[in-house]
Amino acid sequence: MWIFNYANLKDYRWDSEILGLVAQIHEFKGKQELYLKQEPAALEKLLAAYRDFDTRISLVDDKLPAIEMVRKAVCEKIGKFTKSEIMELVPSLSNTSVENSLTQLMKAGVVDRHGRGKATFYTRTDV
User: Fold this and answer.
1) What share of the chain is helix, strand, coil (3-state, %, to 5)?
2) What is the C-alpha to C-alpha distance for residues 93 and 122, in angstroms, rounded to an integer?
């Protein structure tokens, strides 16, 4: 069973949309059937926010080395992704740690780098 550590929540950056969706969940607590009938589109957003939240928590909750955290984040991405997108998934890592981990993954053949400077993006080699 996965144990969630609520004490770590204060360390994460949350955008207003996710906070609003969490507030909606709390507002309809115990009235799920009513909410499902009235707000099916909002439910889809809530589900997407929960999946995003679960992914972020699973990436940072474990005490893994930086390269393994970045590797897990890369496995969540489909198609092109940037260093900034990886940093959003692993906010506990510094810019340098993410850069070094991406370089190591590139040398190991896990990702390919495309472009230069601000136009740099990465793709997974296994897709």
Assistant:
1) 65, 5, 30
2) 18
Token pair, residue 87, equals: 């940093």
Cα distance between residue 89 and residue 46, in whole Å: 18
For residue range 67-98, list pLDDT tens digits in order.
998 998 898 888 999 999 999 888 888 999 99
The CB-based long-range contact list for 12-20 (8 Å cut-off, 24+ gap) reads 12/56, 12/60, 12/91, 13/91, 17/45, 17/49, 18/49, 18/52, 18/53
How many residues are there in the chain?
Answer: 127
Return the ∠ at Cα 27 (arms to 21 and 29), rounded to 5°: 105
Q: Residue 51: pLDDT band by 50, 70, 90 thresholds?
A: confident
Distance CA 100, CA 57 (A): 22
Placement of tokens 């496995």 in the chain: 75
